[in-house]
């Protein structure tokens, strides 16, 4: 075991840091999905020629998404400090890191969800419209279900990016594995701690990628079977 090579006190610190990283990633992932998926739907549905055509609105939210995506995460964390303090009452710690993580990763997931929904056959949408389906029904019964494999794959990419962001957040007071690696591995010249942090992060990322790929394939197979039965 990796922890057997470290003193018990350090092993305990690593476990606590792993818990903090898991909290940051899981909470930020859930929030980014709840916000990013509707945002991605709006980006698709309000574009010219689509079911909720609103060119000006589409351009505005697209610009906002691009502005957030183009801002480096470290700069974004500093820039929204007042907002973070307003939401959680502090700018240091695991829960304080969740706010900038969510703000940073939501536009990425929104764009990935948008790209997945753009791949949906327009013939399916037109067929639903011809049968009198409302925009809400088209979104919930056609657009999102048909794009689900791509959305799941996008969520996997989002989670991997989020893990990297969480390690970065740790370097500026967010806690977690990144904070542990900097404080002990770098500042205290303990390469074994840095190595342990890197190995844990690699294992987490690889596990997320494998599970995400499996989930995307499973969803895709279910959709294919549904089409055959139809």
TrEMBL record:
<keyword id="KW-1133">Transmembrane helix</keyword>
<dbReference type="InterPro" id="IPR051322">
    <property type="entry name" value="AA_ABC_Transporter_Permease"/>
</dbReference>
<protein>
    <submittedName>
        <fullName>DL-methionine transporter permease subunit</fullName>
    </submittedName>
</protein>
<feature type="transmembrane region" description="Helical">
    <location>
        <begin position="87"/>
        <end position="110"/>
    </location>
</feature>
<dbReference type="GO" id="GO:0048473">
    <property type="term" value="P:D-methionine transmembrane transport"/>
</dbReference>
<dbReference type="InterPro" id="IPR000515">
    <property type="entry name" value="MetI-like"/>
</dbReference>
<keyword id="KW-0812">Transmembrane</keyword>
<comment type="similarity">
    <text>Belongs to the binding-protein-dependent transport system permease family. CysTW subfamily.</text>
</comment>
<keyword id="KW-0472">Membrane</keyword>
<feature type="transmembrane region" description="Helical">
    <location>
        <begin position="56"/>
        <end position="81"/>
    </location>
</feature>
<feature type="transmembrane region" description="Helical">
    <location>
        <begin position="193"/>
        <end position="212"/>
    </location>
</feature>
<feature type="transmembrane region" description="Helical">
    <location>
        <begin position="20"/>
        <end position="44"/>
    </location>
</feature>
<dbReference type="InterPro" id="IPR035906">
    <property type="entry name" value="MetI-like_sf"/>
</dbReference>
<dbReference type="GO" id="GO:0005886">
    <property type="term" value="C:plasma membrane"/>
</dbReference>
<dbReference type="Pfam" id="PF00528">
    <property type="entry name" value="BPD_transp_1"/>
</dbReference>
<keyword id="KW-1003">Cell membrane</keyword>
<feature type="domain" description="ABC transmembrane type-1">
    <location>
        <begin position="18"/>
        <end position="212"/>
    </location>
</feature>
<keyword id="KW-0813">Transport</keyword>
């Amino acid at each position: 075991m990796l922890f057997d090579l470290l003193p018990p006190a350090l092993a305990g610190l690593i476990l606590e840091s792993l818990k903090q990283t898991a909290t940051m990633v899981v909470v930020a992932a859930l929030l980014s999905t709840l916000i990013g998926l509707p945002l991605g739907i709006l980006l698709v549905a309000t574009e010219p020629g689509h079911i909720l055509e609103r060119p000006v609105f589409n351009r505005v939210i697209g610009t906002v998404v691009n502005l957030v995506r183009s801002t480096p995460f470290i700069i974004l964390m500093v820039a929204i400090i007042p907002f973070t303090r307003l939401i959680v009452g502090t700018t240091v710690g695991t829960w304080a890191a969740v706010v900038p993580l969510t703000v940073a990763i939501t536009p990425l997931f929104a764009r990935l969800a948008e790209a997945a929904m753009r791949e949906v056959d327009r013939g399916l949408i037109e067929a639903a419209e011809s049968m009198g389906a409302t925009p809400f029904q088209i979104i919930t019964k056609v657009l999102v279900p048909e794009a689900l494999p791509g959305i799941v794959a996008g969520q996997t990419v989002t989670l991997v990016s989020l893990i990297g962001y969480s390690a970065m957040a740790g370097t500026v007071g967010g806690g977690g594995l990144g904070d542990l690696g900097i404080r002990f591995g770098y500042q205290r010249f303990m390469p074994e701690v840095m190595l342990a942090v890197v190995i844990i992060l690699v294992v987490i990322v690889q596990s997320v990628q494998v599970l995400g790929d499996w989930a995307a394939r499973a969803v895709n197979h279910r959709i294919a079977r549904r089409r055959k039965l139809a």
